[in-house]
Amino acid sequence: MSIDELSGIIEAILFVSGDPVFIGDIASNLEIAQLDVEHAVEHIQKKYDEQHSGVRLHRFGKHIQLKTRECYAPYVEKMLQPIQRQSLSNAALETLAVVAYRQPVTRLDVEMVRGVKCDYSLQSLVNKNLIEVCGRKDTLGRPFLYRTTDEFLSHFGISSIDELPKPEEKSPEISEETEEEIYYDSEYDEDNTEQIIIENETEHE
To answer: Which residue among 143, 146, 196, 200 has the highest number of C-beta atoms inside a 10 angstrom radius?
Structure first.
């Protein structure tokens, strides 16, 4: 299969899908090497850039998606008046920033930085698929660890966490003694949150 033919197939898949597509799924379904898909993706990106196409192939992590080129967005919005994605509250944005820069983090990590409880903000971000539970910290209570998702990269139009602007300063790490003290003082029910997350995942299956 030539690279032009493979590129055409990938473009068709992305156009019909509309949503991000996992590169590995394309390779497995077409029964070809993932490296061939990678080369075709680069070929498509280069072609769109050289043609100044109205669409571009956006890659974030191991996912790819067709998107409108930013410079044409005002014209698309004026013509189609698309429904804007629900904006995030300031509290959610602050929580998301802490997770993005310090991941993987626990709820206590986030609350120590923000100075307020973050139960609702974390659950809201999980529901929006911007962050996810990636395990438990090996400490008292084994609290959840959170990290950002590929949807987070897509939402902010970046390809990797490395593209985030560098923070001016980093907050100090939480000592185990401080974490243990907060754990005993907290009224937060980690097991209840676990049940909420499990129920949400079940609803989306």
So the answer is: 146
71: its two tokens: 């410079």
| C-alpha distances out from residue 190 to 105, 110, 123, Å | 14, 15, 12
* pTM (2 d.p.): 0.49
Residue 15 parent element (H or E): helix 3-17
111-146 pLDDT tens trace: 888 888 888 889 889 988 899 999 998 887 788 999
CB distance 151 to 201 below 8 Å: no
- Domains of the chain plus CATH, in order, are 3-80 (1.10.10.10), 90-204 (1.10.10.10)
Amino acid symbol at 76: V
Q: Cα–Cα distance between 72 and 40 in angstroms, integer?
A: 25
